[in-house]
Amino acid sequence: MMITGCFIGLTSIFYYGAMQYLPASLAIILMFQFVWIGILLEWIFSKIKPAPVTVLSIVLILIGVFFASNILNGSIQGLPFKGFLFGILSAFTYAGFIFFSGKVAINVDPWTRTSLMATGSTILVLALFMRDIPSVLPLETNLLTTAVGVSLFGAVLPPLFFAVGAPQVSGGIANILTSIELPVAILSASLILSETITPIQWLGTAIILAAIALNELGSTFFRVRKHING
């Protein structure tokens, strides 16, 4: 469970690294590639071959990314490659977290699981950034307030709520609910960070969300239909 938590620590490192070089709206879109990466992990490690509807969903996700990244307006030209690399790495580590969190100690109490995952994540982050800690000491009030907010809403509450809520619904519904993070993050980037979100980007976001819903609900629909016809 602590090793699984390390994936969340890596996701935070890569995602915040991406935001140093990219707009927040683009960074979250790159991280959201965890959807098709997770499908790929299931295929490789669990030998679950993606259904035709899943392949269609992946294609739609890639089309959505094309529009959401605002390539048509040339807005990504000149942005550092390092930012895109960090963004994609955050997608891989987040996909790893979701994949392994569904396989490891699933019957353990959610509070215990979350605590151990957060501990593993903390140990990893401290090990990687230990020598940088003296440079931020003593902690200023603004930095401390930001750190508490980011850690609470970014590393503590999400895994806890996910651990508590995911077993209460089907896996497909859980993934669809998780996908709501995308429009919320982009809307927050627009309202809080004053980033300009074009209609084309909103179209791309809508396509990504529709693709996720199609993959989860479509697969269930075809399984039920096959069972009825059988």
From TrEMBL:
InterPro entries xrefs: AA-Vitamin_Transporters, EamA_dom, EmrE-like
Domain EamA: 82-214
Membrane-spanning intervals of the chain: 20-41, 53-72, 84-102, 114-131, 143-164, 200-222
Listed Pfam families: EamA
Membrane topology annotation: Multi-pass membrane protein
Principal location class: membrane
Location of the protein in the cell: Cell membrane
Keyword Membrane tagged: yes
Coiled-coil spans in chain: none
Entry keywords, A to Z: Cell membrane, Membrane, Transmembrane, Transmembrane helix
Superkingdom of source: Bacteria
Similarity comment text for this entry: Belongs to the EamA transporter family.
Protein name per the record: Drug/metabolite transporter (DMT)-like permease
Organism: Lederbergia wuyishanensis
